[in-house]
Every structure is written in structure tokens, then in C-alpha cells.
Specification:
Helix content: 40-55%
Number of helices: 25
Number of strands: 9
Structural class: alpha/beta
Low-confidence stretches: none
Shape: globular
Mean pLDDT: 89
Radius of gyration: 27 Å
Strand content: 5-15%
Oligomer: single chain
Strand order of the largest sheet: 1-6-3-2
Length: 573
């Protein structure tokens, strides 16, 4: 057997008239651009030509055709698709083809953050679907490209320190209580990624564990065995979203096996990193519960009010939606539901999608401390100052606060003469914290600024912004996509409160605490949730006049069959 690395096995997209993928993607882009834009300005045309040049040079035309195909198939079948995730939203071609749903020119998103023209690597487009219908998209892909060429990817559950101790103890025939006592001495591992080495570290830092190891022969035997087991794969399951699509039958490229959970589906025996090394196309089909809520709400709006709302086409400057956000009435609104977020909403008083993008990026450990500054500056309570006049156009949108990785890339380009591709390399170098790389980039950046007439003191001060920036700077494309889903849910809540609340209740009907929470929140906002009624309730929560009638399925210990029987009996008389 020979494993060949560095060769990409991209599947071929079947074009309608058998023409080449290159010719077909060009035709498709210029045809669909007319649907996205009233007129194709020179700026739009130049950006399309630049991106298309990069995509064709890297040989990714089939990739884009495949992704747009299953996304548009999902939309045509009423499956709600997220606006994108990650850096794909920086691509205008993705927007034109319907892969993403946010205009990168309007929101100033960078293509090089997604595809770096100086480094060929497979693009990574993660797509969110309604979580209850994600399988339909997967079935479509299997039918279209062949059952033998599509599979889900395996993932391995590995043994952490505590599990290794308990499993080793069971094999050694030690009592459960003894093993449990030792396992409980292991503190919580803050770096969940570090599966190997944590037990050894605890052995050095936890005094009680250290003593037991030194004085008790049984404890030493148990811990020695556990040290060898830590990080070993314990069981296999199916990766939550990874799907591989190949040009040849997968059996010729990777080992396959039956899924441990469901013996009817086939999965790869290599995990996702090995799949990528082999040059196979890994795609992420993610299920997002909030999209299911949107889909359910749209369905009931159409059934009850006879109104068809196109969620991809709602106005992004809707007054009623921003009033709801400014009031902090964000229960059930994606990304903006927590108490901290509600407080900041009331203080910030967002007036545009731009504010929501910034909040998604800043509301995380680290940059959170910048939120009060951002709010004061937006509300005109604090002066906005820039280290250099050239920073103003880059940081103006965020009132002089550095928020996004893309701003860092623009500073490198506009002040130090980097290309955006070099700036993306700089971003990665700082993120990796390798001293040699950092020193090289620092020298290059400062020299570039000096060449552009920026004095040494200011150049050094600007460089000092970069390391903390890399630590907390957020991917603006990703934030824009999530802010858009948040805005869509807020729009539905502002205009169709009862239908949206019923959809929220239905999606959490199996969770008693969440159901109780939403029932209370509904009462606070003036919507009455009527109790279950054997003559009026259906299986789901439904709108009844200006109230919501409790769904029978949400009652504890009432199963679907009995609900079905009650409703059928009622229809009979």
C-alpha cells in the first residue's frame, strides 16, 4: 500500500452541458451577480475577477460548485441555511453563489482571510443547517455524488486523567471507592486539549497525590498504569459535522467501518486530520438549533397569517428590531440572550448591524474589558484618539478600539506595505507565538512603517498593539455571520412575537427548565401561555388568538402515541 500525500482528490462537479467547471463557474457567477446587485460596478467586477483568478489558479472551482449546489438545494427545499461561518464570508464569490449571505463589500470583509493566494490549502467552508433537517442535506449529497464516495468522519474519545485512573483500577481489580478517591484528587483540566501530561503535572503539584504515590504501593501501581493510558483512544463515535466527499470510491483511499452508534451508516476509520493530509475534501455540515427555531416560526407565520417571510431578504436597518435590542428584550435571541449581553445592549443602544458584529467579537474572555470603552466612545462620552492618522480609516468603525483580525491585516498593508496575503501570514505567526517568527515579523513590520514615513517611536508603539491583538482579535467574517443570525431572530421576535415564542417553546419542549423559563418570560412580555387542554391542545405549542396553547408533548411522561390518539379521537367527535 502506498499513501500519497500532497495530492488533492477533489470530486468533480457534473456541469449541466458537460462543459468545463471553469467555464461553468464563470457563467454562473456573472448570471447570479445580477440577482445580488442592481448594477455591476467596476469595484464589484474587479473583486470578482481577482477572487475567480485565485480560485481557478488553485483549482478549487469544483469545490465551490459542489458547496453552492447543496446549499441552494437546501434553500429550495425550505431548509434554513445559516449566512455562513468562519472566514468564507470574506469571499464575494461565495456571496454571489449563495454560499454565504452577507455582502463582504458592504461589511468590509477580506478575501485573503479565507483564501491566501500565496499558500495553497483547501478552503474551509462550514455550513449551518436547521439541526432537525441536516440529515436531508447529507442524503442529497450521497445520492448526487454516490454512496460509495461520501461518508461521515470518525472521532475518537480519548481517556483523560480521571477516566484513566478509574479504568486502570477496574482492570487491576481495585475497589471503586479507592480509585474514585484518587481520581477526585485530580483538579479540573483548564486546557481540555491537553489530554497527555496532565496526570504527571498533577503528580508534581497536588501534595496529597504526591504523598500517596510515594508511600502506598497500590497507589503507585495504579498511577503508573494510568500514566500509560492517559490520552489513549477509549471509544469511537461519529464526528458531529465532518463529512468527506471524494472523486473515487472511498474504499480505494481510506479504511472504512460501520458507525458504532448506527450499524446502517459507514464512516471513515481515519479522523479528520488524517483525512486532510490525504488530500480528501472534508466539509462541515453543522446543525444549529436556532435555525430550526427560525424555520418553525416561518412555517407557523405562513400557516396562521398567510404571510411568506423570506428570512434571507429582511431589511437590515429595521427600526422595530433595533428598539427590541436596545431594550435588552433578547430572551431567545441568538448570541444576545445572556444577562451580561442584555446589560451591554441597553448601554450600547445598537443602531446598526455593525454594533452587533462588534459585540459578538468583544463578548469573550480577554477583549470583554474593552466593551465599556467601546460603549463610551460610541455614545460620545470619551474622546477617540489614534496613534497615527493612517489608523483612522481602519479603526473608525470601532471607534478606535482594535477588535478584528482583519483590522490587524489592514494595518500591516496600509502602514507597512504588506500585501493582504503577507498580512494573513503575519496574523498566523503572531497567533502561534513562536519567538523566531515573531522577531522576523516585528523587524519586517517596523522597517515597512519606517519606509512609509512613520517615525520609529510611533512604529514601535503600533507594533506593541499586535501581540495582544492576535490574542483576542476576532475573525470579523465569522462575527458578521453570527450577528446576522442574531439579528434575524430579533427581527422575528420584534414582528411575530407569538409565533417566534411558540417556536422557542417547541424546540425546548423536552427540557423542563427551559420550558418553564420561556413560559415565565412570555408572561413578563404580555403573552399568556394557556394550560394544556384535552379538547384544544395539539402535540406542539400553538398560537391561539393572542396567546399560546401548551403542547401535549411537553407534558412529562406523555408520549407521542397517546397524544396522536387523543387528537385523532377529538377529530372523530
Amino acid at each position: 500500500l502506498e499513501l500519497e500525500f500532497g495530492k488533492v482528490h477533489l470530486p468533480k462537479y457534473e456541469t449541466p452541458n458537460g462543459e468545463s467547471s471553469k467555464k461553468y463557474i464563470e457563467e454562473l457567477i456573472f448570471e447570479r451577480a445580477k440577482e445580488r446587485f442592481k448594477e455591476i460596478t467596476p469595484e464589484i467586477k474587479a473583486r470578482i475577477e481577482y477572487e475567480l483568478g485565485v480560485i481557478l489558479r488553485m483549482g478549487f472551482e469544483d469545490y465551490f460548485l459542489i458547496v453552492q449546489d447543496y446549499i441552494n438545494w437546501a434553500k429550495d427545499h425550505g431548509i434554513i441555511v445559516g449566512p455562513g461561518r468562519g472566514s468564507a464570508a470574506g469571499s464575494l464569490i461565495s456571496y454571489i453563489l449563495g454560499i454565504t449571505n452577507i455582502d463582504p463589500l458592504k461589511y468590509d470583509l477580506i478575501f485573503e482571510r479565507f483564501l491566501n493566494p500565496e499558500r495553497v490549502q483547501l478552503p474551509d467552508i462550514d455550513v449551518d443547517f436547521t439541526d432537525s433537517r441536516r440529515d436531508e442535506v447529507l442524503t442529497y449529497v450521497k445520492e448526487k455524488y454516490g454512496e460509495d464516495k461520501v461518508a461521515q468522519i470518525i472521532t475518537f474519545g480519548t481517556m483523560a486523567a480521571r477516566a484513566a485512573l478509574r479504568d486502570a483500577g477496574r482492570a487491576l481489580g481495585l475497589s471503586y471507592s479507592y480509585c474514585d478517591k484518587i481520581a477526585k484528587l485530580i483538579p479540573f483540566n483548564p486546557t481540555q486539549g491537553m489530554k497527555v501530561g496532565w496526570l504527571l503535572k498533577c503528580l508534581e503539584t497536588v501534595p496529597e497525590l504526591k504523598t500517596m504515590y510515594a508511600t502506598e504501593a497500590t497507589a503507585k501501581q495504579l498511577i503508573d498504569a494510568a500514566l500509560k493510558l492517559e490520552g489513549v483512544a477509549r471509544h469511537a463515535s461519529v464526528h458531529a459535522c465532518g463529512v468527506v466527499i471524494a472523486n473515487n470510491p472511498l474504499v480505494e483511499l481510506v479504511p472504512l467501518q460501520l458507525s458504532p452508534q448506527d450499524q446502517s451508516s459507514i464512516i471513515t476509520q481515519y479522523e479528520m486530520h488524517a483525512i486532510e493530509t490525504l488530500g480528501l475534501l472534508k466539509m462541515d455540515f453543522l446543525g444549529l438549533k436556532n435555525l430550526t427555531v427560525i424555520e418553525d416560526a416561518l412555517r407557523s407565520i405562513e400557516e396562521i397569517r398567510n404571510e411568506k417571510v423570506n428570512i434571507y431578504d429582511i431589511p437590515l436597518d429595521d427600526q422595530k428590531t433595533f428598539e427590541l435590542l436596545q431594550a435588552g428584550d433578547t430572551t431567545g435571541v441568538f448570541q444576545f440572550e445572556s444577562s451580561g449581553m442584555r446589560r451591554y445592549m441597553k448601554e450600547l443602544k445598537p443602531t446598526a448591524l455593525e454594533d452587533l458584529i462588534a459585540l459578538v467579537s468583544l463578548y469573550r474572555p480577554g477583549p470583554m474589558e474593552l466593551i465599556p470603552t467601546y460603549i463610551r466612545r460610541k455614545n460620545g462620552e470619551e474622546k477617540i484618539a489614534y496613534l497615527h492618522p493612517k489608523l483612522e480609516p481602519i479603526l473608525k468603525n470601532t471607534y478606535g478600539v482594535g477588535v478584528y483580525q482583519e483590522q490587524m491585516m489592514r494595518i500591516a498593508r496600509d502602514l507597512a506595505g504588506y500585501t493582504l496575503a503577507e498580512a494573513d501570514t503575519l496574523r498566523k505567526a503572531i497567533g502561534k507565538k513562536i519567538k523566531k517568527l515573531l522577531d522576523e515579523q516585528q523587524e519586517k513590520l517596523i522597517q515597512g512603517m519606517l519606509k512609509n514615513g512613520i517615525d520609529k517611536k510611533t512604529a514601535n508603539a503600533i507594533w506593541d498593539l499586535f501581540p495582544p491583538f492576535a490574542r483576542y482579535g476576532f475573525n470579523r467574517s465569522h462575527a458578521a455571520c453570527y450577528a446576522l443570525i442574531g439579528y434575524q431572530t430579533a427581527y422575528l421576535k420584534a414582528h411575530y412575537k407569538i409565533e417566534y415564542t411558540a417556536a422557542l417553546l417547541n424546540n425546548d419542549s423536552g427540557d423542563i427548565d427551559r420550558t418553564a423559563f420561556f413560559v415565565n418570560e412570555s408572561k413578563k412580555s404580555g403573552i399568556e401561555v394557556l394550560p394544556p387542554d384535552i379538547n384544544k391542545s395539539f402535540s406542539d405549542f400553538v398560537k391561539e388568538n393572542e396567546s399560546i396553547r401548551f403542547g401535549l408533548l411537553a407534558i412529562k411522561n406523555v408520549g407521542a402515541n397517546i397524544v396522536q390518539a387523543i387528537i385523532e379521537e377529538r377529530l372523530r367527535g
